[in-house]
Amino acid sequence: MGDGVGLEYRLKTPLQEQDIRRLKVYDTIYLTGAIYNLPDQPAYARSLDLQAKGQSPIDLTNSATMHAPTCASKIGGKWVLAYAGVTTSWRLRKIIPDFIKQFKVRAIIGKGGLDEASHKAMQECGCVYLAQVGGCAALYSTMVKEIIDVIWTGRMPESIYIFRVEEYGPLIVGMDTYGNNIYSEVERNAAERQKDIYERLGLPDH
Amino acid sequence: MCVARVITMVTMAVSREVFVRAAAEAMLKAETTIPEDVKDTLQKACEKEKPPAKQILQTMLLNCSVAAEKAKPICQDTGIPIYFVKVGLKAQIDFDISKALGEAYSRVARELPLPPIITNPVTRATSLDVGERIPIVHYSVDVNSDHVDICAVPQGWGAESWCAIKMFPPGEDMRPKKKFILDTVVAAGGRACPPVVVGVGLGGDFELAAKMAKEASSLRPLTKRHTDPEIAQLEEELLDMVNSLGIGPMGMGGVTTALAVNIETASTHIPGTFVAVSIHCWPVRRAVVRVDKSGYRFLPQWEMV
Known about the structure:
The complex is a heterodimer of chains A (206) and B (305).
Chain A: E1 8-12, H1 17-22, E2 28-37, H2 41-52, E3 64-66, E4 70-75, E5 78-84, H3 96-103, E6 107-110, H4 116-125, E7 128-131, H5 137-141, E8 144-151, E9 160-175, H6 182-201
Parallel strand pairs in A: 1-2, 2-3, 3-6, 6-7
Antiparallel strand pairs in A: 2-9, 4-5, 7-9, 8-9
Helix pairs in contact in A: 2-3, 3-4
Chain B: H1 2-12, H2 16-32, H3 36-48, H4 53-70, E1 80-88, H5 97-111, E2 118-119, E3 126-127, E4 136-142, E5 148-155, H6 157-160, E6 164-168, H7 175-188, E7 196-203, H8 206-218, H9 229-243, E8 258-266, E9 273-280, E10 287-292, E11 295-299
Parallel strand pairs in B: 1-4, 7-8
Antiparallel strand pairs in B: 1-5, 2-3, 5-10, 6-9, 7-9, 10-11
Helix pairs in contact in B: 2-5, 3-4
């Protein structure tokens, strides 16, 4: 799976499937263009529900999306970002596979990785998992130049924020379309080492 | 004579307004800066790592500089507010401390600003700054002092979600307890924003074990080991074990899965021993302020009684 060193890419949105399929785990991405931010589960559920009814207000095909709880306010008719940062992707694992398949999004930006079903959907549709560094809202927010639009204003987790970003990164490819997954690889290794430790302690593992 | 006495009495008391300002400043500092011991530990970890762990740690440190410079929150999960309060019994206080802390948090919520995250556990309705028993306040007393120490801890839920507690039967040595601690760290994996701080509460009752774990992860500086050499050695041993797992920063591999393992202990009952594990995310947000009759000042760390 490589030695932890990848290539560096500067990508513009909308993303192209062939470019995405070229990316490999450990590559570092800096994104310029638009990121569609669905802060939490309710925004995903609402999008999928409306898409099924043919009433989706936005086209997410070839987009980069993320799940970043957002603090923003409307000042003089314009949305202004205070800060936003990614939340744990794992909580969204039940809804992400369907989301990828229905919308043909090309990148999911999050932290901590996703499950096998999500990874399968990525490989099938041509989408990658991009890891933002967690707990770094202050830094990543400086790369959001503007809030282009907010769809479904109301409670933050139900809204979609469209950010205009410049050189948004670093984003590390954590799961690629070749079937490589840094998180599951790390977890497999950790389980092996755990076994060694328990053997040394004279304990049965799990 | 009478006037002089009145003035003396007024100046002896801790001012409520100063107290509120101090508690608000502490929360603001905790939200926007990281403690020096955490920064030092992250920097040292950075020197030991290769990519991508090195790059991740560098990004974390850069984020902290940006947050401090722009007075912005380090993390979008600005956390449930917790205040540890140590009241000197010689301090003169004539106001409700919990209410004053609520007012302090309310100020920060409006000024920074913070998002409305305080959630009713039944209805799931959210509020910006009002909640039942919010901020969470942990009181202790210091018989000899005439000041009040406050530690503000904004607790993010990415890490808090992985805390665990278990009762171990008597007749077992430390080995299954070590396994439980390790299993808890593995379950959290990359999802709790590692490198984490692992706080362990060993002994006591259900509540004290959890409280000790929380204090161990949130109050104790990362470079400080337990005063009992045997417990200190256990801390070192567990830290080595955790870091040998290779989970690394953000779960993407590396030798820094935890920045520290801090253990607090208390005597317990014959039929069993509680082990509580508190997981804290990498910024280990906390800020300590001391308030007395003449004003307030920040302290580099919390002083255990």
